[in-house]
Amino acid sequence: MRTPAETVPNRSAGATGEAVPFRVAVVGAGPSGCYTAQALRKSQPDVEIVVLDSLPTPFGLVRYGIAPDHQGAKAVSRQFERVFAQPGVEFVGNVSVGTDVGFESLAENFHAVVLATGLGADRRLDIDQDPDVRVVGAGDLIRLLNSDPDARLRHRSDGLDSLGSEVVILGTGNVAVDVARLLVKSDLDFIASDIDDDALRAVTPDPVRTIHILGRCPSHLAKWDASMVKELAQVVGVHVSVDGAPLFGEPAVSPRTTVDVRFERVPASIRRHDGRIRVTTHRAGDIGTVDHLDADAVITALGFDSSATHAARFDGLQAPNVFRVGGPATGRLGNLAENRKLAADTVKDILAFLRGREHRPRAGLDGLRRQLPASAVDFEAWRRIDDAEIRRARPDRCRTKFTTRDELLAAAADSAVLPSTPLATTGPSTTQEK
Asked: If 0-12 CB within 10 Å is exposed, 13-18 middle and 19+ buried, where does residue 29 land?
């Protein structure tokens, strides 16, 4: 077993022993944290940066939140890899700040601390709802299909249930469209993706025939990108209508799946009804006009809850050297372009603080080594995980991710002991095949 010092080597000190002038800890290796590290190095090349994450893997929502069939967007991780490959930038994974490493230790050993912990929980509906009705968060579902080892749906006591053939999605943002698209695609549509095939088969053992997407706003205020809706409508066998009108004309043949989008529908209740789930809505501005939809599952895509994040543990920390970026700063998850801009703006504040006063020397990563668990993962160990996942991929997938922390840590320790061929459970899927 490696010691913490061996797991996370210090590469920041040069042969002359010169000290790095500023040391910054970033809590969270998702897009906001990585963009922050990238901008810091560009603006102050000699700054030492340590990026910590509770997961053994870097990149956060790039790896586990962007839809697995959108590999173009996930490719931003290559930029982040180049940042971590630089001397003086460290990734320290499988370390929980607040449990393994106290926040006080970060504040003591670094000149600045950046909270980039994201938003981890789907926003809940504040409406009348039967307590035993299963309502699935869109973020939870996408993390499951992205092989997140901590995905809440993966650890449900009742296992992974089928969503059924008729689904209601509440919300009209890009995440709602992501979920709809993932549920209606056939196996062939996921070529070159990193979808968790086992999880997809569990939640859609049979094709989803009907998806109702309900939004409370008028259609012109929908938060999704038009290109996302067009991509959904272009999936073979899918017909999309908006408020009863076909989006791109009537289908030439009977569709495999119908996506029915309705605007200005405000959810009022979700209840059991004749063995199914009844979603009751009223028209926006007219509570007297009530509609009922019966479905097999309800998925909420209403944003994320800022009060349920890792950063919530640090809400009382208002020290001058504590900075927040991304979700902890704004209370919402922006897209990659927004996160990059927010990180750049935060870095300006960080450097203004660092350059604006004298600071005593800080130990940086060396000051944390005694607290790091033996299972801490550095960037070289992450590369072993990365290589193992690519080697074990199905022929038509870009990688097959590990779905448990134990598997990830085993790969981090020595990928040579892992199978280089696909697992038996990741054979061709029958999900939604015609």
From this structure: buried
